[in-house]
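Quarterly update from the structural biology core.
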Amino acid sequence: MMLVEAGLPRLDVNLDLRDSSGAFLARPDLRFPDHRLIVEYEGDGHRADREQWRSDFGRTARLQVFGEEVLRVGAADLRDEPALLAVVRALLMRRGWRQP
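Predicted structure, tokenized:
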């Protein structure tokens, strides 16, 4: 909700992302489709489960090859809302968004 209330561009929540041939790539937590920016929340399970940790790194690399920017955030990031919003805004602006 914080990203929506901050006046950032439209975002998708948990929608399948597919390549040009229709093959499944990922189901990102949040994605700004017009700017190809993904925000992924990494809960403690992502850190504690070795296979999940390895899988996450490979997934991030595949998304980057596809042209997506991937921002991985955790609980500490959510506790500092102004800092997180500043990072998301900066990444969006680097990808062409202009704040109204």
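The chain has a mean pLDDT of 89.
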